[in-house]
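Cross-check.
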Amino acid sequence: MRMNNRWAMLALAAALGVTGASAGVMGQAIEPAASKLRGDLAQVLRDAKPEQLVQVYVVMREQASRDEIGRIARLGNKEAQRQAMRDLLKPLAARSQADVLTLLNQAASSGAVESIRPLWLHNLIGVRATAEVIVGLAQREDVAYVAHDPPRGVEVLPVLPAEGGAIAEIECGVDLMGAPRVWSEFGITGRGVVVGMIDTGMCATHPDLRNQVWVNTGEIPNNNIDDDNNGYVDDVNGWNFENGNGNISDLNGHGTHTSGTVAGDGTNGTQTGMAPDASIMTLKFWNSFSGEQTVWDSIQYGVDNGAHVLSASLGWPHSTNPNRPMWRSICENAMAAGVVVIFAAGNEGNCCRPTDAVRTPGDVPDMITVGATDCNDNLASFSSVGPVTWSNIPPYNDWPYPPGKPKPTISAPGVNTKSTSNNCSGYINLSGTSMATPHVAGAVALMLEADPSLDHFAVKDILQATALDLGEPGRDNFFGAGRVDAYEAVAAALGGGIPMRLQTSRFVAGVNGDAEVFRATPGQTVAFIYSTRGLGSTYIPQLDVTIDLASPALAGIRTADVDGYALLRKRVPPGTQGVRVWMQAAEFQRKSNVVEQVIE
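Predicted model, tokenized:
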């Protein structure tokens, strides 16, 4: 890519070691690029000293088509999906980033650039660079925009103190969710399942965790060589994205605690883990609200290196202005690759209702977002409640409020949770949706041992279908579908009870609305049925099925393709603003879950 103006050439000069433009000159240089400098970045660059390095990420203009991502998500084979995502996204990033990376590597030799971190799961490059270099990057035609990733110095993962109470030998959440029954009746303990824990690290020598530490068999420890050519040197047990090395030790304690809730085996006295034979891949992020890209890096590492589940007890409040479209793209790409992705809802309670209490990326519509209960199935006072909306977030502009997208997805115990301590021998009690999330990740590890073919969407559907309904009947914005029942979820997974999934786009009066069905029987006829009267139970003789709707009407009939996919696209009648609609899809003699929508 040829840079075609004076100020872009100034950045190239910086890359070659010619630095030190005056503040006035730099101020003039910023103006042509200002439209592509997101947030407060333009002012930050105006105020920056000539040799000051500013943390940014550079988003490339060329991105993968969402239609292509959707096609991969429907392949129906998780490993094929993972490889297809690599085959699509890695070459795209390598090709489109090549010129920018050359420029940045040249600039690094002069000290104008540090910490170059290319990402392919979404096509971007993280970097610390001088204002001159950043302005030059923003001038390029192949760059969509440059965003500031500012240091805020506030921890993402503050923990809530335990609230007292007796602790059993088997941690109460593990017991309540039925994990011991899964171990004893099914002989399932999470064997063979890799859970990527995006957190503050882990004490790998804790007696309850040392046998559950994931080992990268392609890497020879401590030889300073990237033996498996995955881009990381000595990533034996995971990676530290805060410091850029393989040291996964946990100084904070949060990561050791959450890891223990997934896989602690009770060697030292308390059975803290849901899936005591699962493997923990430790992905240490920068525990600061300036660490967004370190989480994206962690997600990509998990996708690229074989994690089956990604669990993250973290999130960005909307008040910190996270890049919500970027989070959604990266998380949806990981889901499309066949990985189960789970994030905490947050500890804001109902602080920011109606639509801003749930943190990003827990607000991603398809995310398995976890709220917290106590071990008496009461809602935790701190658990963030929904709904969420994306109506003002381009390019998505969906899930308008009211009613918005219900959140959380599911709930699990997260009050007074006893788990492993980073003193590397004992236990500590903590509370938060941070503690609820690994309970769910551990339950998912059990489900995946039962049926390794389950993808993110199948897991989500089973969790919701088998949950213990709490609060208002049906799904709500406090408990989601209810508290996870690991025993029933594993039983459903063993029985092949994977429900057909109906997904609907935003319904807008006067324009087309889409309803999509996944995991139908290939070649089977699928009926799309709706009601404006709400839930009920109605037998439809023509289809020989019973529908969970009152006074249902037929929207259309389609035939599922070879991937079990069917699409109904219809024009929404004008004049139907504010009409609440319940929709269901059914195969002849088979039915799916009900999805509630509202026509604007």
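The domain at 501-599 is CATH 2.60.40.1930 (Immunoglobulin-like). Residues 268 and 443 are 22 Å apart (CA to CA). Passed to J.P. for a second look.
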